Amino acid sequence: MNKTTNIASTLEWRRFAWLTLAIIGLSQGPPTAFAQTSFTDRDVGTPAFAGSVEVANGEITEHGGGNDIWNNSDNFHYYYTKRTGDFDCIVRVQSLTGPNTWSKAELMVRESVADGGGNLVPAGGDRFFANMATQTAGQNGVAAQWRDTRNGGASWASWPMPMVRPDYPDCWLRLQRIGDVFYAASSPDGATWRYIGALNSSWTPGGRFNGEVLVGLAVTAHDNWSTEGATAVFSDLQFLNPPSPPNPLTPVLGANGHYYEIVLVNPTLGVRIGWEEARQQASQWTFECVAGHLATITSEAEDILLEALRKTVVQQAGLLPDDVNHGHEFWVGGSQTPGADEPAGGWEWVNNEGPIVAGPYGGYQRGVNALETPFGFWGPNEPNDCNSGIDVAPGRENYLAIGRYGSRGWNDEGCGLQQIWGYVVEYEDVQPITCPANVTACNDPGKCGAVVEYPPPTTVGNCGGATFAYSPPSGSFFPVGTTPVNCIATDPNGRVVSQCSFTVTVNDCEPPVISGVSVTPSLLWPANHKLALVTVNYTASDNCGVADSSLSATSNEPDNGLGDGDQPNDIQLIPGDNHHLYLRAERSGIGASRVYAITITCTDIHGNRTTQTALVAVPHDLRH
């Protein structure tokens, strides 16, 4: 993770429960091999355009019709497989075309009902959770969508934050199931992931999703009467093993250049935290070598961002709705000066960032606009103390929390200081480390990969005293393809304080090798106008593998030359045979001799091509 702490070891166990909405580094295990034959496809609902799927050369081209994946019933084409339990699936969307800006390509999980034979059959009204990419990169985007009640309405993640914009062909989607929670993430390179939504199915009206579900690729035209439908080209479809929950890589970047995250203590064990302890812990977290503090909210934009964070963490963590009074609140860096008029006087931010707007008891006070300082967004009847006007513990509420009763709004808290699940940390003046640019290289001779060396980070940000480690390290052997490289910075105490990533792409630049070329026979005699079977001997090899070999042939004389008994079709290839062909023992009666040039063409698995030529002669006579 891109952060560390020097909090006492007695609190270290809480670190596993950090949750955030941001650009995230999802831990990525090795892919699980699966055969394309384990997938099946069908139209779901009643699309007028019949969908289809073609799988070739690692690409999945899917055509789909239908009016949409939305409302109470879906109409689309689905290419899917059955999965039981947790999973972690990624796919690259190379392209998406369709008749509508809301034509969609999705990585989807559906809770389908079994037929009489026990087979799951997708239906239009199924409950589902999906990672959705839309057609127009400049207008629409990538987002999570779902239906949580069978035959009920559909929803999508539309929190007030920048939507991820698809950038084909570099649009990667990821879908995970961990227990009852589904996660969606997107990436521009398949290495650095941004979390974009989650659904805790145990919260939904339909209850927990079944253990056995259908996972696959969905395409809808968003135009049921389109005669061509929508077409998506997918690649790199794989299940990663083992699946693991999202781990935050970087906190959220706000419009003010500060970073924010919510630290959640462990609600499943009944652990809560008071404001003073939260303030102490917040000052000990670091991000990009910068110490944090309890967040101060001095603008409308900050407040909207933190509300989006709060909602996401609540949903992702599975906090129960019946704990909405205080379990959905999080501490921020506001407190009331001792001896101030109760309940509204003397509210200030930590770090000497100024006063907090607070009107008389019972008021709903906030800044007039996003530029007003000081700023406040108190909930109705706040601040109010536990027992209004009592300036003695436990009656006085001296500390500030966001998420009053599970909604946007501030609340003064303190009557039972352990009633809050977590807190918001803010990092200022962050200068992240910068990895080198992505590296591209050709393969080493004779190898399906290359030893690649790359430079250290171009800038080290606030982490000048850090030690940097790379995985894989510079000088490693990188196979043909794209490999993500992670750079991790650790401080002198060995704690991870920052990280960045880039990619190393090794291209197969080496064509195949054709050796041992000979033909039998190499001389056709007598020139009796008959077809002769010619064997072409050769061996094809390649550093990464030969995909295809073929034969072709030409002649220095026309097919219908001069001479008695001339026959057509002198060169006849044998379909599927790359070592034999028929040549006619025929030459022009007035020429010197006829020469057939046989071309051997070999193509490797990455499209590199090599040719070699062998000659077969039909002499005018045996003296030539």
What does this entry look like structurally?
The protein is mainly β. The protein folds into four domains: 3-20 and 249-427, Roll (Mannose-Binding Protein A, Chain A), CATH 3.10.100.10; 24-240, Jelly Rolls (Sandwich); 439-507, Sandwich (Immunoglobulin-like), CATH 2.60.40; 513-619, Immunoglobulin-like (Sandwich). It contains two helices and 42 strands. Strand 13 (142-147) and strand 14 form a beta hairpin. The protein is elongated and about 120 Å long. Mean pLDDT is 81; it is low at 1-31, 245-249, 360-372 and 388-392.
Compact overview of the structure:
The chain is mostly beta strands. Strands 2, 3, 5, 6, 8, 15, 16, 17 and 19 form a nine-stranded antiparallel sheet that branches. Strands 20, 21, 24, 25, 26, 27, 28 and 29 form an eight-stranded mixed sheet that branches. It has a seven-stranded antiparallel sheet with strand order 4-7-18-9-12-13-14, with no helix packed on it.
The first-level CATH class of the largest domain is given as Mainly Beta
Let me know the largest β-sheet. Answer: 9 strands, antiparallel
- CATH topology of the largest domain, anyone? Jelly Rolls
Number of strands: 42
| Residue fraction in strands | 35-45%
Radius of gyration: 33 Å
The overall pLDDT, averaged over residues, is 81
